[in-house]
Amino acid sequence: MSESERDLNRSNPWLFFGLALGLTWLFWIPAALLPLAEPAWPVLALHYLGGVMPAAAAILLLCTRHTSQERRDYWQRIIDFKRIGPKWYAAILLTVPALTALAALGDVVLGGMGAELEAAARFVDRPLALVPFAIFMLLFGPLPEEVAWRGYGLEGLQNRRNALVSSLILGGVWTAWHLPLFFIDGSYQHGLGVGTQGFWLFILDMVPQSILMTWIYNNTRRSTLSAVLFHFVVNFVGELFGLAPRAEVLYIALWWVAAVVVTAIWGPQRLVRRERLELEGRAA
Length: 284
Fold this sequence. Notes:
There is one protein chain. This protein has helices at 3-10, 13-33, 41-51, 53-65, 68-79, 86-109, 118-121, 130-139, 142-158, 163-178, 188-192, 197-219, 224-240, 245-266, 274-283; strands at residues 115-116, 242-243. The protein is an all-alpha fold. It has one domain (3-283). The chain has a two-stranded antiparallel ribbon with strand order 1-2. Helix 6 (86-109) crosses helix 14 (245-266).
């Protein structure tokens, strides 16, 4: 077996996806079967433990199937903030607010109310309260998810497929991974309900998000940190600025438009401009 074949075998994404979903659902299915009564901690504990299982799966496979060099590369991609250039920090921090603002503006133009600012208003008089709020959101979502989905799963997919196909597959798996949450009392997804407009918009949101996250990831030298930050901004802005029903539809439509534009301009093979590919080729 050649070295490249051994690399492909070590980074089998389907093994990771099966392990990540299986371990997560081992906690989430019992949580879905338990009512959220007093005390609430059993359901909450199962909920949060399930949320870190993709990271546990990635680290387990990393430790048992990969070389020390690959393990160093994995951890380096999580902590190396220098991989992300200024324009990509701008893309990470401004894309979601821009899409949210455009969706709200479009709704206002059509006669709607645009955005609901009640959540953001809670922090006007106590802005320091945003710090623990932001830390909680980072630790229970973006960080444990992205060290797995982008940091490990996307790597294995892109070893075998182009960036667009990898993003579509990962977006589908990511969507499926969330499904038990719709049946767990107290979760954000449970509040949306099953079969509602919110349910379908949530389902439709994962794939274009996955495409844009791959775009940023590949243009920041495979920075897992870029994915963590982008995911955090998505959640943070969504929590602070709720959109009216029609604005939510416009918001998801804009995600798809952004994904199509990025794919058309940067190309489906790597979602990276040709000049960068040439530079990477010379560097190799």
